[in-house]
């Protein structure tokens, strides 16, 4: 018997996609000589839950459709995942390699090592590395299922240990570890570790798997602890903003350095991601959802992955036109770019989804 469609998870896909676009538009805002710090805080700090949230959602989809109490055939599973993720990854990577080469009049990316390096680490465009990590999660699926069974024996203890162990690993990976090697293969493997080392997102991935396996129990707990969930969200949101403004005020960081420091893998960033997942599930699964929210975020959720794939094209077009017309990008221009990019990407996605264009133009990681 097929399971019910969970609208709250689909809403979260849509919201997270808006957050991903915000982060990328924020990279435009932050290079201004005098960036609007409040706008940067919204685009680059408060949207930081979006990237790890997609690993939560991906794991949820995997385990909701392939629960632990059902047979699991790795070969069949992997074949489906490669068809729905690896093929679009290759197609869009090649598209962006050509796209960037034509714009820059530089085709050196097609030299043998550069070509391999770009595809192996997901460097064709700044957003596409996500699919590389996701593919590694898929390849390692035989590890995650027994790990979840083990963690299910004492979930509160095991997830607490995993959270803090992941926090320590991410802290050292983000701020402490350095490697300087004359071997370009070793140096690249270290420099681009965030593009393939799944350990950076292991906690949120496993929490997504646990939520899928015990969805009713998780939502029942959220219903009973709504106040705690809201307080937790308020505290982590305040913590993210305090850390962002704090490193600039007390440590003298510029806004760009602050954003590179207070990210989703920082200790407060991990707590903020967790709180946001619980907060969204509480308000969108355990509370009445307004009809307009259902309509808007259902559409965004349905179109989220084509939007993800294509939105850099529209962002580069907007910034290119602004440069051509010598427009100094103030806050109002940045907001306009965000709206234009989102609208154009959504329109493209509508065409792809509703008119059933070739599957490589889209992507599905819902676990279907």
UniProtKB/TrEMBL annotation:
Major location category of this protein: membrane
Molecular function (Gene Ontology), one example: acyltransferase activity
The EC number(s) this enzyme carries: 2.3.1.-
Subcellular location: Cell membrane
Boundaries of every Acyltransferase domain copy: 6-349
Transmembrane stretches, start-end: 12-31, 37-64, 85-107, 119-144, 156-177, 197-215, 227-245, 265-284, 305-325, 331-353
Short name of any one Pfam family annotated for the protein: Acyl_transf_3
Protein's recorded name: Acyltransferase
Organism: Megasphaera intestinihominis
Lineage: Bacteria, Bacillati, Bacillota, Negativicutes, Veillonellales
